[in-house]
């Protein structure tokens, strides 16, 4: 990784610092609210998920779509850096930006489960799986933003990925290996949980790698 690539990554972190802070604070606050009763838990859980998803969508919109509108490729081509290196910097930089609120949200959710007497510890594997899915979901949005050639297509990607979160929660939550242990006093880590996490890891790797194999070969990716 050369100096320019590192500076481009640092630029993403600097430009989106406010968004990272707001999303992190919103997710942590939502997790805290969830500790105050069943109704508060339901409201806080929805707000928690919304904060993470919205943060990712905003990063994709402002980090990629806006640059495409502003024809930033002309600036990129003036730098002593290849298209592949720029795609790497953009992908890795925005991923780092998302990891900040994602880690804050994940840590607060785990703390809620372990520290709150009203929340069974058996919910922890499901929460971890959901956190993993939200990360995988962002990488798919990021991959789609780098490949989409129109705002309409990007909008479709955002809508579908947002809808998929609800589908994931219901489908995975209904798996016997997870459903049967949600109310357990201790977390149960079984093959079902690990298989879900493995699929999420594969999706993340593919979504992060794909732009380097495709978009980086096109001089008009922005």
UniProtKB/TrEMBL annotation:
Subcellular localization, as worded in the UniProt entry: Membrane
UniProt keyword terms in alphabetical order: Membrane, Transmembrane, Transmembrane helix
Membrane topology: Multi-pass membrane protein
GO molecular function, one term: ABC-type transporter activity
A single GO cellular-component term on record: membrane
ABC-2 type transporter transmembrane domain: residues covered: 44-177
Spans through the membrane: 45-65, 86-114, 126-146, 153-173, 193-213
Protein name (database record): ABC transporter permease
Organism: Luteimonas viscosa
């Amino acid at each position: 990784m050369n100096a320019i690539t590192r500076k481009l990554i640092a630029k993403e972190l600097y430009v989106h610092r406010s968004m990272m802070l707001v999303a992190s604070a919103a997710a942590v606050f939502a997790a805290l609210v969830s500790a105050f009763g069943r109704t508060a838990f339901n409201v806080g859980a929805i707000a928690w998920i919304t904060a993470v998803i919205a943060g990712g969508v905003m990063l994709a919109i402002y980090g990629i779509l806006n640059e495409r509108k502003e024809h930033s490729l002309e600036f990129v081509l003036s730098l002593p850096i290849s298209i592949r290196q720029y795609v790497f910097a953009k992908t890795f930089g925005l991923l780092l930006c998302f990891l900040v609120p994602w880690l804050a949200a994940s840590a607060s959710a785990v703390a809620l489960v372990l520290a709150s007497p009203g929340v069974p510890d058996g919910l922890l594997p499901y929460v971890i799986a959901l956190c993993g899915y939200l990360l995988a979901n962002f990488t798919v949005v990021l991959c789609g933003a780098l490949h989409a050639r129109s705002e309409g297509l990007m909008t479709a990607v955002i809508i579908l990925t947002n809808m998929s979160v609800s589908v994931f929660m219901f489908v995975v939550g209904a798996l016997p290996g997870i459903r049967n242990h949600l109310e357990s006093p201790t977390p149960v880590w079984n093959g079902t949980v690990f298989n879900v996490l493995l699929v999420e890891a594969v999706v993340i790797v593919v979504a992060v790698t794909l732009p380097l194999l495709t978009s980086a070969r096109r001089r008009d990716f922005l």
